[in-house]
## 1
Amino acid sequence: MASTLDSTDATDRDVTTIAYGTCHHDCPDSCGWIATVENGVAVKLRGDPDHPFSKGELCPKVNHFIDRTYSDKRVTTPLRRVGPKGSSEFEAISWETALEEISAQLHIVIGAHGAEAVLPFSGAGNQSVLAMWFPYRLWNALGVTRLQGALCGAVAGAGVAMTNGTKLALDPEELAHSKLIIIWGSNTRLTNRHLWPTIEAARGKGARIIVIDPIRTITADEADQFIQPLPGTDVALMLAMMHVIIRDGLQDHEWVAAHTLGFEDLEEHVREWTPQRAAEICGLAEDEIVALAREYATTRPAAIRTLIGAEHREHGGMFFRTLACLPALVGAWRDRGGGLARSV
């Protein structure tokens, strides 16, 4: 936790301080919090009402953060497995022993199979620069196998970049200017809850909210329309939407000609992805797919909001690669409040 302590009039006993910090969880919101600390122990945690985005609200994960911080179940020392996999049998060992064993195993593997036999795998964790990037100094020196990243954010970025040439996307706060917001595969009200007031503000100005998700979530319950394809069939739905858009001449011809490559190849590829075919695969009504495609293509500004859920499955990168084709096809990027918002 990054913090600033206010310890005015501190004494050796009964010292109460206030710590201002920012949540370190792997989340796009980076919420501000205020902790009350008594004699060096945090006793209360609340949202910072002056934080420009979270405005004093914390998510369910952080509401119990103090309990987890001082829990006797926290792992505070390296553990070595002593039983078979899945048995949950571990023994505590010292850091010195842990580092010696890891080093020895690295030498054995590299000596027998080469450095690329070592595959480092990590995530954002607590989002510190040390946790996320510093280990690469070691991995690069050893010459181990390189990865794009973990299954959280990196897959989505790589998929979007295959279409857009960059993983950068629409600032989610720009949804305030949208007239149609499609939330695709994201439970925004729970997992990105501080964006929800922005979406509600857009709805207050006339925007329609459509949620597409194989699971009925609390976000789906608040949408103007909920579309529920079968799990793993999202790409078929996207291809059918593009089929309808091109078939009905609803693509932004000028924007496509000026800012995209490969339209003819896309047109050929989606020709066989009729609404009827997708309806059978997705478990949706054909008319529902056609109406969705036409509304998306004819409403401006139109935005698609997704997060990382779809990348946590096989071929997750292609979900984002395909999804990114939709705003390019209809020229959504030309409008403020239009385009694709993924992660931060």
## 2
Amino acid sequence: MFVSLDLAISGAAAAPSPPPAKPDGQHDFDFALGTWKSHLRRLQKPLAGSTSWIEGDATVSVRKIWNGRGNLEEIDLVTPSGRLQGLTLRLYDAPARQWRVHWAKASDGVLTSPPSIGQFKDGRGELYDQETLNGKVILVRHIFSAVTPTSYHFEQAFSADRGHTWEANWVADLTRTSADPAAPTLSAENRNHDFDFNLGEWDVAVKRLTDPLSGKSNWTNWKGTGHIAPVWSGLANIAEFELDGPTGHLQGVGLRIFNAEAKQWSISWANGRDGVIGVPVVGEFKDGRGELLDVEDFKGRQIYVRNLFTNITPDSAEFEQAFSEDGKSWEPNWLMTFKRKTIETKQ
């Protein structure tokens, strides 16, 4: 016993110092908040020997979520080949001290996966992911550079040789036009109205089953607020929640995108703990009731997940999440009631 203790002390004394902690990067993208004009060049056929570029001008608006630990960027690009509306959802993974970046186009309403992941160093941001292009696996790199209070440079590049060489295919220079993001609107003529009831500011109350599909019935109560705002002039919306309960503070965000071709909604959800987007639930509204489903892994087994929006009025609504192992019997585990906030006016 004495010898082993002595060895332990000696080993501890000789152990090297732990590496310095990585810097906290949750405000890395603060420079991008606001409204921008952008001149963009896009390579028509990446990794095909093409030298033909399309140029266009875009308006870019970036709003913060989670008090800056995430942000939503909306892009409205016009080129000779047409118009493109896109969005970028950037969420900070605090444990990893990295950013996760997802992309979607209004034309198909699909949030890309996997996300680009990376961080900033010395004022330069680099994020990477692996995708498939024309049947071939490639690497994708995003670089944010030359950042000033009023401008920055962005480049997307592909590599077909595991990162030895890179070909840029999306290059943009952005100039600030306002410190504030553009005000959300509902001006899109072809938008779907299913989630109009949910737009605005809400008080929310949640009952949460602590251990789903375990046979236990321990519930906890949470209270907080919800903020739901339109995206793409109403073609989509983003829902932010702040909740307090017996185990602390919970932040969540849900990006709801309508696929006009499929006539379905998808909701991609992430929590503020790690910023990881889960499997989207997909579905539709019928007779004032929304039902969306997906299949996920839960504790090593595959389950069904159902989201319901019911009892909808102008000033209230109810939400239920339930799990099922067979798709027939359902166990609710998250019950949320919405009550619209009232605006006090001074007499």
## 3
Amino acid sequence: MASKELKQFTRDEVAQHNKQMILNPLGSRKSYHSPYFKESHKRFQKEVRKFVDEVVYPDALAREEDGKRPSLSVVQKMAIFPHNSRGYGDGLNAGAVIGLPPVMNFGAPALRDRVVSEVLSGKKFISLAISEAFAGSDVAGLKTTAKKTEDGKFWIINGTKKWITNGTFSDYFTVGCKTEDGLTVILVERGEGVETKSIKTSYSPTAGTAYITFENVKVPVENTLGPEGGGIFVILSNFNHERWVMCCSAARGQRSIVEECLKWVNQRKAFGKPLSSQAVIRSKLAEMIARAESVQSWLENVTYQMCNMSYKQQARSLAGQIALLKMFATRAAKTLPGTQYWWERYH
């Protein structure tokens, strides 16, 4: 009797159910529980997705076509900065995400209040200018120099930076420089002596990737971020935040990869049957889904720790965890035959 009362689901209903189960993190699914998320978070997630679909996505398509930076009208409508994909996503917020925190955490109050207000309102853009042609994560190898004028009131900056996201259209640059006392981070405003050239990349012109030249750029010493010679701490602390953002992007991107793979294995046939009917393919999909879920769980735990630690505590206690998570998250998806395009698009 009991078996007769069970509802019979169609194949399409089962497929839709499975899709929603896979594409949403466990704690945000209906009827599931989370130690971190409340019902208000789920409602917020729903509204953000609606906003992205109706406002952000149309502009993303248009900007990928013309190669310009995201429209100011989109930024002005945003209450948050969703990082939903590479390319347009990088153009929309990457520079602010990695270039603004040093200003917020180490800038003088007057400088911080002015720059943060301008950037978050969308009136101006900022980028992090650390990488050079022959130095990146090895910040001790930076060659861009900053020397003080005789009266000690200004920095004179000379050097080049490469692969700088948002650099082509940035108004501010958070720059790592070599000084007498070691490394120092300085906020540079676009002006005389600052030249940017676009670098063509394989994924998107909207990110505004740039080669930057600083030639005798005069900057007030008040624009110094953190102590003189203390740039290593400023830069490495910021790397933690930058890597965490990459982990968030990777966690979301993995689910997009899984979605496309699920579509593909049900469309593509081999020997008269869908690829999804083959055990080896199903095994690969299961591994991808399992790793995507584990990345999400690890990310939520690390994020909780970040929310309950000071900036200095994060730098001291979470650098290793965040670095390991980034390594794991960016290697957590496998590709199936014919799906390499999606890996390149989302990874």
## 4
Amino acid sequence: MTQATGTPNTDVPAPIAMLQMLSGFWISKAIYAVAKLGIADYLQDRPKTAEELAAITETHPLSLYRLLRALASVGIFAEDDNHNFSLTPLAATLQTDVLGSLRFFAISELGTVHSLGWNNLLYSLRTGGIAFDDAAGMNIWEYYAQHLEDGKSFDRAMTNVTAVVVAAILSSYDFSEFQNIVDIGGGQGSLITEILKANPKLKGIIFDLPQVIEDTKLRLQTEDIADRVTVLSGSFFESVPVGGDAYLLKHIIHDWDEEKATTILKNCHQAMPQHSKLLLFEIVIAPGNEPSFGKLLDLNMLVMAGGRERTEEEYRVLLQAAGFQLTQIIPTSSPLSIIEAVKV
């Protein structure tokens, strides 16, 4: 395999390829550590030695050197002959708040919270239950509500992901036909912000939990579309705002099992005018054995939230159960597809 991606390398004996794949656990934990320490941010101006970086981050110089050397061997950072470390394209994605940043995604997905679930994977396999809930004694959303720092890291992680995929969404779908879009579970508002910037006549509503939208309001104050956005709080298990002509759900439905996903969709159906459209931004699982980010993410949903990634047919059946007809699935240049549906 290529060590940086986890893709099997057919040019080496199977035991060697398996050893390389097993090292993926070490790589992911190393990525978490440098993301948490903010190492990539400290290399923006110039390359630095491990000793310099250790002084900045209050870490042990030799241990930090060994960490950076290991990551440089898989293309994350580069070490020169003088033992200076510099950014590579992969390392640059671990910077904060730059285009393509995945720093907070790495912190959220590879840290102690997700370890609770993944260390208990066998529970899900044996029972079909949610491994995280069994280990933590509560579901992931309750956990984030009680552990605010972890919850904020998750919100920023979702903002990271949105920033990575939003250009692909905008280039694949024409939002200009709408007047008022409603972003259900819209988080910090990254998706709706970019859609409104690209469509000056559009207005929008961001709908999310009360503990989420306080940060959303602060973030929107820095955006020039703030006067076109209304921020509302509530639970999509109870109701959603009425009156939009497009209802957007990005990476929402995959968090939930069929029963809860159907409840969310039925609440959207009830709030939507007859002419409006439902747009889901999700990974659609394809058949075959090709490498698939979606199939791995599906395991994360099993372990952490009890949700799942779905095939086209599974989305068709789910939407029908909530009173929708699937009209088209539009692939994008990102892992996400745009699943369009209308009321029937």
